[in-house]
């Protein structure tokens, strides 16, 4: 088994990378339509590269964020039906007890230290080379995958 994994070149490691995309739209309906088209294009580009990719559900995103915010472990207990009766929001179920922000891009979450970087690609399409380069990054990346909708007020 070890020889088989070594032959694959990944030493049995599995990498997960998350891509977030957001748009501005005049209405929620228009935003949903455009986001669906963008999602389809991104998934098709990954498929052409031979990469398994899929959209995440809201529950999966929250569970992933909980894992990032609680690196020491801990049970993720959540159900969307709990929100209305409790008056809580999703952040109440995933956020750590405290953050400490210092200078620049660094922060502390408990005994863990982190840094935040941001890459904004302002292009109508992502070409195969950009997607390939993102997937080939050697450093461990943790990113938040949340598709957001921004609506402009009508004049």
Mind explaining what this structure looks like?
- By secondary structure, the protein is α+β, with helices and mostly antiparallel strands.
- It has one domain (2-151).
- The chain has helices at residues 2-8, 28-48, 58-69, 83-86, 91-94, 128-135; strands spanning 22-25, 100-101, 106-109, 112-115, 148-151.
- A hairpin with a 4-residue loop joins strand 2 and strand 3 (106-109).
- The longest helix has 21 residues, at 28-48.
Q: What is the CA-CA span between the terminal residues? A: 64 Å
- Provide the helix percentage: 25-40%
Number of domains: 1
So what's the overall shape? globular
> What summary fits the major beta sheet?
3 strands, antiparallel
Determine the mean pLDDT: 76
Number of helices: 6
For the largest sheet, list the strands in their spatial order.
2-3-4
| Helix/sheet category | alpha+beta
Low-confidence stretches: 140-155
H/E element order: HEHHHHEEEHE
Rg (C-alpha, Å): 19 Å
**Number of DSSP-assigned strands:** 5
Strand content: 5-15%
Q: What's the gist of this structure?
A:
With 155 residues, the protein is an alpha+beta fold. It has six helices and five strands.
Kindly list the characteristics that best describe this protein:
single chain; 3-stranded antiparallel sheet; 6 helices; 5 strands; disordered C terminus; alpha+beta; two-stranded parallel sheet; globular; 155 residues
């Amino acid at each position: 088994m070890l020889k088989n994994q070594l032959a694959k070149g990944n030493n049995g490691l599995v990498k997960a990378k998350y891509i977030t995309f957001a748009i501005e739209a005049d209405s929620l309906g228009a935003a949903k339509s455009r986001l669906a088209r963008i999602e389809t294009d991104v998934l098709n580009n990954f498929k052409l590269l031979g990469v398994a990719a899929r959209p995440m559900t809201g529950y999966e995103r929250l569970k992933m964020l909980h894992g990032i915010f609680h690196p020491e472990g801990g049970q993720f207990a959540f159900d969307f039906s709990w929100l209305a009766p409790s008056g809580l929001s999703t952040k109440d179920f995933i956020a750590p007890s405290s953050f400490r922000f210092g200078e620049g891009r660094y922060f502390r979450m408990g005994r863990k230290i982190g840094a935040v970087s941001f890459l904004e690609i302002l292009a109508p399409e992502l070409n195969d080379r950009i997607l390939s380069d993102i997937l080939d990054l050697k450093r461990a990346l943790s990113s938040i995958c949340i598709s957001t909708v921004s609506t402009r007020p009508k004049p």
